[in-house]
Amino acid sequence: MTEGRLIGIARRERKRAPMEVLERALVDPASGVAGDSRGRPGARQVTVLTAPGWSDACRELGRELPWTARRANLLVDGIPLAGTTGRRLVIGSLLLEITGELDPCSRMEEAGEGLRQALAPDWRGGVTCRVIAGGEIGVGDTVGLEDAHG
Predict the structure, then answer these.
(1) Residue 47 domain-assigned?
(2) CA 74 – CA 18 distance, rounded (Å)
(3) Is the pLDDT of residue 112 over 90?
(4) Does a structural domain hold residue 71?
(5) Is residue 31 within 8 Å of 146, Cβ to Cβ?
(6) What are the Cα distances from residue 133, in Å, to 14, 64, 69?
(7) Most confident of 77-86, 99-108, 111-120
(8) Number of separate domains in the chain
(9) Looking at residue 48, which CATH number applies to its domain?
(10) Within a 10 A sphere around the Cβ of 62, how many other Cβ atoms?
(11) Does some domain include residue 150?
C-alpha cells in the first residue's frame, strides 16, 4: 500500500459558500464530511486533491493560490491519484472508494484566470470519492492508497 499524509480538510456549508478549513472532521456514508453541502451519498461525496498537483497547477498559472480555491474536501501529500478509479483510500478508520477524476469546472476561473486549464492535465484537479466506511480524521493522519489488487 502506498502511504502519504493528510495535510488539509475543508468543507462548505452551502453552494458557493466560502471554504472552512478544519483540523479534524467526521466523515460518514450518509453525509460525507460533516457539515459539507455536497456530502450526500453518491460518486462525488468527498473530493480529494494532491499537494503536488495543486503546486504544479499554481506554478503553471504563475502564482500561488490557497488550496481551498479548488473547493476540494481533502488535501493529501505523498499519494499519486492519477488513474486510480476503483481503488481505495484509507485514512484511519475512514475508507473511501475513488470513483473518478474531479474535472475542473468554470468556477475555477473565478479563483484565478487560467486555473481550469492548469488543473486539467494528469488529474491535477483531484478525484471524487464515495464513503465506504466512516471515521474521524485529522490533519497529519496517514493516508494509504490500497494496491490495485486490493
Answers:
(1) yes
(2) 15
(3) no
(4) yes
(5) no
(6) 24, 34, 27
(7) 77-86
(8) 1
(9) 2.40.33.20
(10) 9
(11) no
* Domain interval for residue 134: 2-145
Identify whether the C-beta of residue 45 lies closer than 8 Å to the C-beta of residue 30: no
pLDDT single digits (tens) 46-79? 999 999 999 999 999 999 999 999 999 999 999 9
| Single-letter amino acid code for the residue at 46 | V
How many CB atoms are closer than 10 A to CB 25? 22
Place of cell 470513483: 99
Residue 43 pLDDT greater than 90, yes or no: yes
Q: Show the 3-state SS of 12-55.
A: CCCCCCCCEEECEEEEECCCEECCCCCCCCCCCCEEEEEHHHHH
Q: Which amino acid is at 57?
A: A
User: What does the alpha-carbon distance between residue 76 and residue 21 come to, in Å, rounded to a whole number?
Assistant: 14
Give CA separation, 97 vs 35, 50, 66, in Å: 20, 16, 26
118 assigned to some structural domain: yes
CA distance 51 to 103: 16
